[in-house]
Amino acid sequence: MPVERLAEALADRYRLERELGAGGMATVYLAEDLRHHRHVAVKVLRPELAAVIGAERFLAEIRTTANLQHPHILPLFDSGEADHFLFYVMPYVEGESLRDRLRRETQLPIADATRIAGEVASALDYAHRHGVVHRDIKPENILLHDGRALVADFGIALAITSAGSGSGSRMTETGMSLGTPHYMSPEQAMGEREITARADVYALGAVLYEMLVGEPPFTGPSVQAIVAKVLTETPRPLLPQRHTIPPHLEAVVLTALEKLPADRYTTAGEFLAALGDTTARATSAATIAMRAPVRGRDSRTAAIAALTGLVLLLAGWTAWRALQPAVTEPVQRYALAMPDSQAITGLFAISPDGERLLFSGPGNRLWLKAHDRADAEPVPGTDGARRFVFSPDGKAVAFVEGSRVKKLTLGSASAIQLADSASPTGGLAWLDDGSIIYVRTAGRALMRVVAAGGSAEVMQQSDSLPAILPRALPGSRYVLFTVCFGGTCGSRQDLAVFDRKTRTTRILAPAVATGDYVAPGRLIFVRRDGVMLAAPFDPGRAVITGEAVPVRDSVVVLGPGYLPLYAVSRTGTFVTRLGATAGAERYTMVSIDRTGAETPLDPEWTFQMVVFGGNSGWAVSPDGTRLAIGLGTSSGDDIWIKHLPHGALSRLSLDSAPDFRPRWMPDGRTVTFISTRGPAAGGLSAAHLYRRAADGTGADSMVVDVGRPVYEAAWTRDLRWLALRTGGVVNQTGGRDIYAIRPGIDTAATPLLTSPVFDESALALSPDGHWMAYESNETGSTEVYLRPFPQVDAGKQQVSVRGGQAPIWARNGSELFYVSANREMMVVPVAGGASVQLGQPRILFRLPEGLYPLAGENYTPFDITPDGHFLMARLAQRGEAVHPVIVTEHWFQELDARMRSGR
Predict the structure, then answer these.
(1) Distance CA 556, CA 884 (A)
(2) Are 22 and 114 contained in the same domain?
(3) Which whole number is the average pLDDT over 543-550?
(4) Ramachandran sector of residue 263 (left: φ over 0; alpha: ψ -120 to 50; beta: rest)
(5) What residues pair up with 694 in beta bridges, in sequence order?
């Protein structure tokens, strides 16, 4: 394929970067989508195939697949013709295909194989219900991204088949094969024109077979030999090849691989249900049916008579119920207006019977409002409560105060402590069996403690991803929770479920902030953009059994942690706060002199910070002509370059992962920044230091991998030393440490300040590179300190008094600035020499309301220009007004109606 001609043909829309691979039908290229500034995969049909098909017929067929929207289907972005090339465009997925993993591991763990097959079956079931059959399910078309399966090329084989159906023998002359012999159903191998969804079920069965035993069900030296086996032979049973495979799973695979379509599962949904039914008897042809033993004639007759009576009784009751008129209560919706003295200031929960609302209110305590009362009352013994939940019977509440889990019986005056070391914002769940699930502060674990009292135990733990926001499911076997990616959940969140019986975890819904089970048989979940969706759900197996549909938009979502503000009772009362998602505020950059006088930098420029909120960061170039800044835009969180003061804004980083906290290297030609792309570090989420030329040329590259997540970095002017601040899990104290490394010389980073008890962060190197200012909470409050660099043990001076944060040096090194606990900009004179001399701190000006930084950023979120002005962000537009709390009674009727209509 002439790559130069192809690149020229697509130049107005896509910039080809490199070839990713080639297959029987298409060549795949990595490209930049010039309009949306994102990486995509451009698949170009082989010219001889394109000539046979024709553009008009191919594009007409492929359009039908563009409407498939499912969490396990790779979407179709674009398709078209350019200079006789037929192409289609899909997202570029960083990860590997199932084929790549099989090449590496040969056989997958049974749990992984079952999960992947279930996710693919879910995608197939959705597509089949929308009239699309894949026709080419194989490991190469199953991508693995962040632990979940994505089915690619949906409907492409159908498009080619349909578009080429009028070409007669010309299709075979191209040498193309529609479908892959190892996974091709017998009816496809025989060339039948009418291919149904059961062909995809067969192919998925073959893929699952290979994941479990290491090879497809039929192999051979040639395509003809494989096809002959597909048509004539029976697959070998799995258990003799791998004895740990559960018998029911073998039955599922062999049923899917039946020769006759009528003998397979009717739908991919049936296949999915069978995967989770561990109690089902094996029913495939390879299973021997066992007849029940014959008991006595009398006992059998009595059993038949009893059964007949029960059937008649149930039939009569059902008939009577069918004749009764349906009684439905009207849906009622109203705003909950509370006086300021009883205002809902944060989270809320509703009792299971829907009669009482518990909420965070004035006085930093919990308040309780009964349905039949106009006023709310404070709940004694709940001062400082953060997260809270009702007991299943509604008679008690559990809450987190500080790091302690407490239980209070409503009506009593005091609470009892059940556990400590709890995350203040991690969340709580109270299960039907009387146990309470909470999130441990240090370490990534869901903990369990019995509400009646006792020692806490680890229920679920991950070495790589934290679990937050647990939610109860009926029966107490399963627990919903949110898997958090990124140190402050800024990268992504997935809704997961933990099986307490098998002690396994699986993802239920990707890219979801949190979710809840609501009767009858419904799972609701909210994305981070505030859209609430609902899907049919089987609580006995903890599986989503149908398509998710949107049921509410604009649910307020609080960060960090992205916690949606809603609550649902078992009786169908729904409470929510509607409005703009938190974090949608827009800012403008201001220049502030030493008196506190503000001057807008560019009055026509406003911006939104990245989803990490305070992690955005900005830095002025050494010559003062450019600003590097982390921005949150529709294309993601990236680093941008602003030419000062009124110049253009251009995007620097192009990766889909969050990028933030830029800093200029001393030469002014390169920008470093933190990104959550790349490998996980030290069992935590990926967070590494990257760099790119400030003019946007070249590619991003990782500076150094120190085996830990990095959230701050600073170079000495001679580029010999790089100081790094690692760690930083929300609500975790003692995880932020400072290291140093000489890139190109050292093989490992040198620990400088690494206390396991308190945090060291907001590092700032002096212009001469001999001193390091930083903030630490070692005294119980955050203060600014100064040490020699890199010999930090050669001395130590406390700079701030009664609280300080965000240290930064003057460009000439003669002054050190920081923000006091009272939001005052402080300046400390610094006299150079072998032993630095600090003058008395004095106030320059007070930071007014609406001026960034806020408290507790753990880094310095502003910069100083060469002429000594401070560049800070001022709130220009609030993204969230005070929105009323909306109560909807009998909401289940509205929910069911929306699910039936699909919108």
Answers:
(1) 11
(2) yes
(3) 87
(4) alpha
(5) none
pLDDT at 885: 83
> Is the same domain home to 78 and 113?
yes
d(C-alpha 161, C-alpha 64), whole Å: 14
For residue 884, what are the contacts with CB-CB under 8 A and spacing of at least 6?
A: 335, 336, 337, 577, 578
In the structure, what pLDDT confidence band is assigned to residue 454 with cuts at 50, 70 and 90?
A: confident
Residue 176 structural domain: 3-276
For 323, phi then psi, to 5°, come to -85, -15
Beta carbons within 8 Å of 634's beta carbon, 6+ residues apart: none
| 552 assigned to some structural domain | no
* Domain end point (choices 276, 297, 316): 276
Asked if 664 and 734 sit in the same domain, the reply is no
Residue 869 lies in a domain: yes
Number of domain units in the chain: 3
Q: DSSP secondary-structure letter at 686?
A: -
Q: Which residue has better confidence, 66 or 758?
A: 758
The percentage of residues in the chain with a pLDDT greater than 70, rounded to a whole number, is: 82
796 Cβ contact partners less than 8 Å away, ≥ 6 residues apart: 785, 786, 787
**Are residues 874 and 785 part of one domain?**
no
pLDDT for residue 216 is more than 90: yes
In 380-453, at which residue ranges do the beta strands (DSSP E only) sit? Answer: 385-390, 396-401, 404-409, 416-419, 428-430, 435-439, 445-450
Torsion angle, CA of 589/728/498/239, rounded to 10 degrees?
Answer: 110
* 194 contacts: CB under 8 Å, gap ≥ 6: none
Task: Give the count of beta carbons closer than 10 Å to the beta carbon of residue 835.
Answer: 10
Instruction: Let me know: does 117 contact 208? Beta carbons within 8 Å.
Output: yes
In the block, residue with structure tokens 């700032």? 764
| Residue 338 in domain | no
Same domain as 209, residue 182: yes
Structure confidence at residue 775 (pLDDT): 94
* The two structure tokens encoding residue 284: 């495939």
Q: Please, how many CA atoms are within 13 Å of residue 208, restricted to the half-sphere of its CB?
A: 33
- Give the residue from 81, 41, 39 showing the smallest Cα distance to 62: 81
**692, pLDDT greater than 90:** yes
Q: How far is residue 564's CA from residue 348's CA, in Å, rounded to a whole number?
A: 10
Q: What is the CATH number of the domain that holds 734?
A: 2.120.10.30
Secondary structure (3-state) at 492: strand
Query: Do 34 and 161 touch, CB atoms closer than 8 A?
Result: no
Tell me, yes or no, if the pTM score tops 0.70: no
- Predicted pLDDT at 428: 94
- Looking at the fold, whether 601 and 633 belong to one and the same domain comes out as yes
Of the residues 254, 276, 298, the one at which a domain ends: 276
What is each CA distance from 137 to 111, 119, 156, 203, 208, in whole angstroms? Answer: 20, 13, 11, 6, 11
**Measured between alpha carbons, how far is 556 from 124 in angstroms, rounded to an integer?**
33
298 versus 539: which is more confidently predicted? 539
Show the CA angle centred on residue 677, arms to residues 676 and 680, nearest 5°: 80
pLDDT at 194: 77
Q: Is residue 337 part of a domain?
A: no
205, 202, 186: which is closest to 250 by C-alpha?
205
**Domain match, 736 and 631 both:** no
- How far apart are the C-alpha atoms of 670 and 654, rounded to whole Å? 15
**CATH number of the domain within which 139 lies:** 1.10.510.10
Handedness of CA 166, 170, 174, 178 (dihedral sign): positive
| Cβ–Cβ under 8 Å, residues 408 and 381 | yes
pLDDT of residue 771: 95
Same domain, 31 and 163: yes
Q: List Cβ neighbours of 746 (8 Å cut-off, separation of 6 or more).
A: none
354: left (phi over 0), alpha (psi -120 to 50) or beta: left
Inter-residue contact 199 to 185 (CB < 8 Å): yes
Which two tokens mark 750? 């040198």
